[in-house]
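User: Design a sequence. Structure:
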């Protein structure tokens, strides 16, 4: 059953918005597939292990790596959001997917070493959570744009906590990861609502990038939780 085909017309959306939503999720599917393939290549080639060793050498390497990722992410999202050419929007999305695959590679290397079953489990859990949030956004037809300001403040607080933990050498723990999963869920709900109601209909790749970023954030912390639980059981 095509749930989208049934719900979108009922939501009172125009044909251009419906076509945009379908294009966005097509781009999202390609981005997720590309991320999976790139992650597999990076792991098989040993890039994840190499980056993990590099980051273990100094805490400031991780901060620098995180800073570069944020800069690249800003550049890619800005390009995808503002470029009039669909090809340039797709390039922005592709750059972001590559950046996510690179920053995930050390985490996947850790998971493969201590809890290999956690990787597919985290993917499955993340997809279930995203599916539930997507259903909520489409079925309720509510505008969740009010979450934008709250998520922005929470995001800055989270970044500050992460940087402080690296500099001062303390662990944020499993509860921080759980809070971040909830935060990522709010981002998915916000992005989905934005796609339904507000995002410019000529920017499907940009919309897919934002939603992909939120899903990747959720996957990161779900995987961290599973790694922590596996390690505590040993």
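Assistant: Done.
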């Amino acid at each position: 059953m095509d749930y989208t085909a049934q719900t979108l017309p009922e939501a009172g959306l125009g044909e251009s918005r419906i076509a945009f939503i379908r294009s966005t999720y097509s781009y999202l599917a390609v981005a997720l597939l590309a991320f999976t393939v790139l992650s597999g290549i990076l792991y098989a080639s040993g890039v994840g292990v190499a980056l993990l060793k590099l980051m273990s050498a100094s805490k400031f390497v991780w901060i620098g790596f995180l800073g570069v990722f944020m800069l690249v992410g800003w550049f890619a999202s800005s390009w995808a959001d503002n470029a009039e050419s669909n090809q340039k929007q797709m390039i922005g999305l592709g750059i972001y997917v590559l950046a996510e695959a690179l920053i995930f590679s050390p985490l996947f290397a850790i998971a493969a070493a201590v809890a290999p079953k956690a990787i597919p489990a985290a993917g499955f859990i993340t997809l279930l959570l995203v599916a539930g949030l997507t259903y909520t956004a489409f079925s309720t037809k509510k505008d969740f744009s009010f979450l934008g300001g709250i998520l922005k403040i929470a995001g800055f607080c989270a970044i500050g906590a992460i940087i402080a933990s690296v500099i001062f050498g303390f662990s944020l723990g499993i509860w921080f990861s759980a809070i971040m999963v909830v935060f990522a869920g709010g981002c998915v709900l916000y992005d989905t609502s934005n796609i339904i109601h507000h995002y410019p209909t000529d920017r499907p790749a940009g919309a897919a990038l934002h939603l992909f970023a939120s899903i990747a954030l959720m996957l990161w912390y779900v995987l961290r939780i599973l790694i922590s639980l596996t390690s505590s059981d040993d």
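The chain has nine helices and no strands. Residues 1-6 have pLDDT under 50 and may be disordered.
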